[in-house]
Amino acid sequence: MIVEGFNTEGVLMMVNISKCKQYYADQAFNYDYPEGLADLITKGIVHIITTDEGIETIIWEFDPSRINLDEWEYKGSYNYLDVAEGDEVRLVSHADFTQMCDHHNGDLEAQIESSLFIRNILNRDHPKDKETILKEECPKIDLPPGKWMVNVYISKDTGDYWYPEFTFHFEKTDLVDWEKITLKPLEFFE
């Protein structure tokens, strides 16, 4: 899958929406970044990367042989996503994430529903419904059940007006090495 032109609001977030909703059903949201996300990171609910506002291209890949190392530089990041049967994983902007967790107990759809009226007033010529916003602004990442290490690659082509381009290689694992999980996110700025 490829996503073009994603606005991160400063943090690229892959979020297990289902587990996030369960987590915030009885937890308060902590705005400290990245410390406030530590429990979510260690439980495989979120994977975060600090960025500028925009990302040019995001590619999800399951076959590492399809990643051309002449074009992509491996940046590491052992952190993982934990996906159970029926879980929904999405790419979410930092702004949407904080709103859904703090004001809607981790419920992305409730956050979008609550913002539809104002979104459509501000974009009167291009009104959107919840399904369109989910598809365009919070793209779904189709991950089968399991624990998925997220290997991060960044484009070596920086150009004159560089916006980062990422390839994420999802590697299924049976065992998570807790010692290798990092609570300090990767950082990519212009």
UniProtKB/TrEMBL annotation:
This is Uncharacterized protein.
